[in-house]
Amino acid sequence: MRMMKLALLNFRNGFRNYLSLVISLAFTMSVFLNFQNIIYSDALALLGERNKNNVDTIVQVISVVLVCFMFFFIWYSTNVFLTRQKKEIGIYVFMGLTNQKIGKLYMIEITLIGLSALVLGIAFGTAFTGLFQMVLLALSDLVVEISFQFVLQPVLITAGVYLVIYLIFVLKGYADIVRSSVLDMFTGARQNEYIRQSFILLWIRALLGVVVLGTGFYFAVKEGGMEVLGNVFLAVVLVIAGVYLLFGGLIPLIFQGLAGRKSFLYQKTRCLWVNNVIFRMKKNYRTYAMVCVLVLCSVTALATGFAMKARYENIVHFENTYTFQLLSDRKDLDDEARELIEECTPIAFSSYIPITTLEESQIKTTTRYTGYAITSWSALKNLAEEAGLSFELEEPEEDEYIRATNMILFSLITDVTSETAVIEGKTFRQIQRTQEPYLGYLQERHVNLFILNDEEYEKLRPAGRELYVYNYKITDPKAFAAARDRLSELVEQIRQKDGYIGRVAIDPEGEDDRKWIKVLYSLCEFMFMVFIFASGSIMSMKLYNDSFEEKERYLVMKKLGFESRLLGRSIACELAAAYGMPFVVMSIASYFSVHALEKMMFADLRMINVVSVLAVGVVFFVCYRLSVRVYRRNVGV
Amino acid sequence: MNENKVSLSAKNLLKNYGTKNFETRVLKGIDLTVYQNDFIAIMGPSGSGKTTLLNILSTIDKPSQGEVMLADKEIARLSNKELSRLRRDKIGFIFQDYNLLDTMTLQDNIALPLSLNGVSGKECVRKAKELGDMFGLSEHLGKYPWQLSGGQKQRGAACRALITDPEIIFADEPTGALDSKASRELLKCLKAVNENGRAAILMVTHDPFCASYAKDVYILSDGLIKCRISRGGERKEFYDRIIEVQSSMGGDLS
Predict the structure, then answer these.
(1) Residue A215: helix, strand or coil by DSSP?
(2) A281 touching B (Cβ < 8 Å)
(3) Quick check: is B75 in a domain?
(4) What is the nearest CA distance from B235 to chain A, expressed in angstroms?
(5) Residue ranges of chain B whose pLDDT lies below 50
(6) A144 contact partners, CB below 8 Å, separation of at least 6
């Protein structure tokens, strides 16, 4: 009972000190709770079962990531608590308390902190579920009426997961204390970090880190077929391991090397902050590495979201151009098809174009595509006029071509003329690239259309197989099914006569079973923000904690007459290194992770990469400025 | 009386602690002049105001009344920034608990004040090594404080205090944490530094043996300088005189 009283007293007196810890834990929990709530609430049920199922699956995957994150976060927070308590523990030793009793005291105190965080997290999380869903749906561009509803299941899951993880670390802390020697505990506060690490060990880690990280990058960007997914998984594991080794090896090695070069070191405040970075490195490298991996995840999450959104818009954009498309070797299908459709509904517009498909062996391009076809400039012009599509293409010269592609989100390749194609042995230079959906769904999915000068097309026409594309957009969407059935009869007839025909039918009113992609996009944006703020808060907490350990040192320096201005500059440099190291490593690694994603999702995400890295930079800069201010205040500079 | 330049002078120093109606006067009117070649030890019983006097003279604390002139400047009139600069350029400190920064090697500790002053890296290295040699620390410059003995640490702290070529060094119980051998080594070094004209030294100590390395010993009691003993001949003889005065004044001066 007396132990309980003491623990309660400690908890009450120290609560203000641990408030940041409690808030961080509560924040993590409320994020997890909100994601869980997406699964168990019926807010997204209106999207249809298939969409809801897809969103649920994605949320489950995200939840696994969040559980991992929670695991590390709780590990880290309980460690911070243990470090801060060590001074008091030393005093208890002299009061004659046994290790077991001190351990028990620690357990009660940290449990009280954990429970406060739990209550706060669940309360915040539940209060914000409505807002979270509203923002999520607004970002996803979906109209669903949201009403506040309390669902018990996500609360139970969140509390359960949190308590299990928390309990593991409470017991770990208890075991640490019980196993410690009295001397360890007494000197605990002073025994924080060992200074320099063995050069041999650092070299081994550094070399290993570079090799592992390099291999990870290699697998991330390696071209391949079905094995790409396996490569990407391998890349993720290697990059995480590599980042840890880099922070545990190469970076301390560089700093220790710099500290060894006295002419470099003895320049104003360098002597102070470079030595401080080395001093802190052994203990902090895991935090830096974790933050680096977290922000890397956030950048990748955002890129995934954008890639998904781009894919969705591509599909919608191209698929809705025409209702029906026929691709056949018969030149005279238009009247027949038109007649069949018009029996059901008037046609809003239609278009027709002859194209010549080429085998991969007949064409060699700078970038490899799937599905090649050529057509003439005049034929495409006719098609655009018929379909009412914009046509702002200059006729190519005899050695030039224009390429009609699917939609690309961003492109940093401004010089489209750098691409070339060798068709039947003749080299053509690309002069323009268009994303106008002249061939609708076919252009989005199957055909890379090379538009040639009329004469050149005529020359090359015999080299491939000439096919005719007939496109129709109907006016009455309700008549879609009837018109589709009529066309199916035609398709069947031609097939029976051994003719070649393919048909595309897109229901204008069909249920969009891809709405989940929009939700995924918003979820990815949330993940981006969650990871960035989590990283920022971890760094801030770490440095906040460090500042208390540095207080005495700065007091000495002030007594020695070192100006506050210089000490402040040294702190600014030290903290800039702390934030800068993970940022730089992440920026480099993100190039590879986003590149890997680009390959998988056929999207140009370079701009997203740059923008998200800049966003991380901005958040880090704000956290950095705050940390410098708090640090200076805590050490009294 | 010394004929050389005055490093520091204090006139009628008073220092009170506590609130208005419950004030305790710790210093009751101290007049003191320290010349360039002086090596002064201040002794006195606990609570006599030794450390308070040292703190005021070294600009760490402010007097309630009176004037302190350091390097021809009255310190009460200086801004915090100017005070910092004065501490940085004109004063060196040696503390009882060394106060070396455990984040850096001994050489870095010694060179730090110079480096912060913007002196070139080469010059920092040269001076740190020179002082390291002088204090017998050449072998230990690459070590961290936790790898050094108390004596080595304190000699390192003395090097750090001297590297900016200060006019005066304030030492607060510099041998308080050292054994007699380490104390002797440190004091010999300090004496040599003073005799070479590098800096004046003002040292607070309760140890007569330590005080016997100084040129003058001031006995502080009840907030006033009660007596001054000047060294004439041998250190041993000086030490005996200090003990004698100590006994005549009631024994314990610690």
Answers:
(1) helix
(2) no
(3) yes
(4) 31
(5) 1-2, 254
(6) A43, A44, A46, A47, A137
Cβ–Cβ below 8 Å for B116 and A195: no
Flag whether residue B88 sits within 8 Å of chain A, measured between CB atoms: yes
CATH number at residue B40: 3.40.50.300
Q: What are the residue ranges in chain A where pLDDT is below 70?
A: 1, 16-17, 43, 46-47, 84, 86-87, 90, 94, 141-148, 181-197, 223-229, 367-369, 407-418, 510-514, 601-602
A-contacting residues in B 4-23 (Cβ below 8 Å): none
User: Distance between CA atoms of A621 and A576, rounded to whole angstroms?
Assistant: 9
Are the beta carbons of A267 and B115 separated by less than 8 Å?
Answer: yes
**From A196, A553, A562, residue closest to B88, measured CB to CB:** A562
B86 CA to chain A: closest CA distance, Å? 8
Residue A225, both tokens: 């077929």
Nearest by CB to B88, from A265, A279, A563: name it: A563
- Is residue B1 in a domain? no
Nearest chain B residue to A279 by CA: give it.
B103
CA distance B33 to A204: 60
Q: Give the CA distances from residue A188 to residues A10, A85, A177, A287, A342, in Å, rounded to whole numbers and listed in that order.
A: 19, 9, 11, 20, 87
Q: What is the pLDDT of residues B61-89, one digit of tens each?
A: 888 889 998 878 888 888 877 887 788 78
Domain count along chain B: 1
**Could you tell me the residue range of the domain that residue B46 belongs to?**
6-248
Annotate chain B with three-state secondary structure: CCCCCEEEEEEEEEEEECCHHHCEEEEEEEEEEEECCCEEEEECCCCCCHHHHHHHHCCCCCCCEEEEEECCEEHHHCCHHHHHHHHHHHEEEECCCCCCCCCCCHHHHHHHHHHHCCCCHHHHHHHHHHHHHHCCCHHHCCCCHHHCCHHHHHHHHHHHHHCCCCCEEEEECCCCCCCHHHHHHHHHHHHHHHHCCCCEEEEECCCHHHHCCCCEEEEEECCEEEEEEECCCCHHHHHHHHHHHHHHCCCCCC
Residue B69 belongs to a domain? yes
